[in-house]
């Protein structure tokens, strides 16, 4: 199985400049390869250029531009060309399936924030010894950079990536190990129901409040965006220092919200994995849940539209995005796999309308958002708890069916 590790790098001032130049030159290589593919398709009888053709040109490019492209790892430049090739493959796959194509776009220096090294020891060298203070990573063209390794890396290092987030630099390692490290068996199974008011309700009657990180930072973000809007939109290299500070302030606030959301998701998922052997959750189509309502043209007045609830739906969409259900479920699945636990996704339909006592299903069973009152047997409970109980039962049924 593959595990990822992310550590903070602490480069010197010169190393930070060299890392920025490495990103800039890889971004230039990416954009140049994209331009070559566009020109070949448009002007040379719709000729398609492959990764193999562009990779074969790298040697000549490095020899021609020794001061820039020649400084960096050959393998990392090949990885950048593979990244472009994957973008084109995904584009053609979407075209064939009838989805929105999304043609690969040129990358600005602020968009291109990652350089990948396909193998440890080829252009980079990670110290694979157990965790010791003062760990370093060697990068071709940069040197030995200090890394804050806060936990040990288990397994064989496969790939190494250098990533920039704001003014911080991180190294991301992927390591392969033989299998999971199972936690002690608890004999417990739980169903969870994700929501807005309560981030999580479980089948045992517990609730976890929604931290609403985005809403808590909304006022600061509004102030920062208002200051940023005072500056005219210009190219990055034409920005004044005050403009750059305003941009960095908005980015720093968004980064803080993101880190808080990830921290909450990791801690919540870890607690569930430690306490339960089986975890069942709703298989939510989150991308469909946050879609904007379709406009409703007026049947008698051309150019006019009827109310479609877009304002209320927009507020709900922001709340769903702020909760971060998708990120949490991804982290939960990963941690459960590493700990030898089982995560089951079940159909979410009618989970909060189905009575767990008599089995009666009706829309009237849920008169309000929080209340569940069965119109058949009179069973009364919190609607989210009822949903979590039904999710657990459906998950156990599916588990038994798959094992049979």
Number of helices: 11
Mean pLDDT: 91
Residue share in helices?
Answer: 40-55%
Distance between the termini: 26 Å
Number of strands: 16
Tell me which oligomeric state these chains represent. Answer: single chain
> What class would the helix/strand composition place it in?
alpha+beta
Instruction: Tell me the fraction of residues in β-strands, as a range.
Output: 15-25%
Shape: globular
Would you kindly provide a written description of the structure presented here, covering whatever features stand out?
There is one protein chain. This protein has helices at 13-43, 51-56, 58-64, 74-97, 213-216, 218-229, 241-275, 286-289, 310-323, 325-339, 383-403; strands at residues 2-10, 114-117, 124-126, 136-139, 143-148, 156-165, 168-176, 189-194, 198-202, 207-209, 278-282, 296-297, 305-306, 342-346, 371-373, 380-382. The protein has 2 domains: 2-176, no CATH class; 189-403, no CATH class. It is built from 11 helices and 16 strands. Helix 1 packs across helix 4 (74-97), helix 6 runs antiparallel to helix 7 and helix 7 packs across helix 10 (325-339). Helices cover 43% and strands 20% of the residues. The strands form 4 sheets. Strands 2-6-7-1-5-4-3 form a 7-stranded antiparallel β-sheet. It has a 5-stranded mixed β-sheet with strand order 10-9-8-11-14. It is an alpha+beta fold and 404 residues long.
